[in-house]
Design a protein that fits this description.
It contains 8 helices and 6 strands. By secondary structure, the protein is of the alpha/beta class. The protein has a single domain, classed as Glutaredoxin, CATH 3.40.30. The chain has a 6-stranded mixed beta sheet, sandwiched between helices. Strand 2, helix 3 and strand 3 form a beta-alpha-beta unit. The longest helix has 19 residues. The chain starts with 10 loop residues before the first strand and ends with a helix.
């Protein structure tokens, strides 16, 4: 399993950082994470077909994740308007979303910039071609840094209790593994 799920992980995010991010309704992220466990899904740019696949998986797994008492929050690098339109394509417009064009949350969660090998290796190309043909996910217009790597995190209060950092752009988003850490 590529997901870090250690109860003694002790990775803490600064409360002031979590308080500085607000969802589309103006609710601070720290309020959401104190109320219940939050699955933060930090996405690559909106043109990424793997990002689109992740959103389709979130839509598919949403009910099971929420049944565990976990709130899903999508983090993106576009504007609020771009995020609303993009997530609406997957029926996820009602999920909490946070715009982070400066990538402060990405950096705080240690999500780095992709190397050429993480974006352009043969396995990434094969998988991309397969999901294009099999699932119909297409490349779109990017909103955000095209080299930003994604990840999925389970946060309670200001503590990260599970993390999945992608090894390549084509990596599995780790939704099931991270949500099992509740």
């Amino acid at each position: 399993m590529d997901t870090e799920t250690r109860q003694d992980m002790q990775t803490e995010l600064p409360s002031d950082l979590l308080g500085s991010f607000r969802n589309q309704h103006g609710t601070p992220l720290i309020s959401l994470t104190k109320a219940q466990p939050v699955m933060l899904v930090l996405l690559r740019h909106s043109g990424c077909l793997f990002c689109r696949e992740t959103l389709a998986r979130v839509a598919e797994k949403r009910e099971a994740i929420e049944a565990k008492g976990v709130r899903i929050v999508l983090v993106h690098m576009g504007t609020e308007k771009q995020g609303s339109a993009f997530f609406g394509q997957y029926g996820l417009e009602d999920l909490d979303r946070i715009s982070d064009p400066a990538r402060k949350l990405y950096k705080a969660l240690d999500l780095g910039m992709a190397t050429p090998g993480q974006l352009f290796n043969l396995d990434v190309w094969r998988r991309g071609f397969r999901i294009l043909l099999d699932e119909g996910h297409f490349i779109g217009i990017p909103h955000g840094n095209t080299f930003q790597m994604p990840g999925t995190f389970l946060v309670k209060g200001n503590r990260v209790i599970a993390a999945h950092r992608h090894k390549t752009a084509a990596d599995n988003p780790g939704l099931e593994e991270v949500s099992c850490a509740v």
